[in-house]
Give the backbone structure.
Amino acid sequence: MAVKQIENLLKLLEFFAERKNPATLADVVAHFGWARSSTFNILTTLVENGYLYEPKARAGFYPSPRWLQLAHAMAEGEPISEKLRQLLAELADQTGETIWISASSGQYAVFIEVVESKANVRYTAKAGKRVPIHATASGQALLSQLPEHDLGVLLRKVSFERYSTNTPMSIPEVLEQIEAGRRRGWFASASNYSPDLGGVAVPVIDGRRTYSVTVAGPLYRVRDKCVEHATCIHKTISRIYGPGHSRATLRNYNTIL
């Protein structure tokens, strides 16, 4: 269940990120339609704790560098490795499509790092985006690495919802798609979650963490490139992580080469 006060705080941060300028109390109230008293309390609390300040007197509030300091401190605990960054950069250059690294978070796959395609028509995504872990190529690549018992426990918690035309709607259907992905060496989505979006994903082990790397774009452009993109992912993983990496995570890896 969402907590309204936290949701409002997150919306406020996104507001400043898009605005890129100070905002007064009246600006925030007008943008969100929040009660003036509640908005005043939120802004005052953030000011008193050092998270907002006034760059110029009575010219509005703006987030302080304290947010950046917190983000840096947290990133030091689990940074994206240089190998993962290299993987993203090389695949972006080779495919021309949007690439991202995902990690599991309960029933979701969370985008950790994203490189967007430079094409005019492209899949747009940002770090922090969450997608259902059972209904996406990114998520199924992550699920493929779970022990059978843990996979069953997680899938029994899923609330199956029709997101798009090809969304899997039952545990047997998800398991069948995961097994098919294991056999061929990559996981696929074609309007499974986002309409008219297609992509392929492969799991990658970096240190002690399991991630998935996904190549995705408009379905009309990537539908016939699944094998090409999957092969590109495997070859790049092999070059960066070693030739045995994909064989250690997927069955019948050689079938796509």
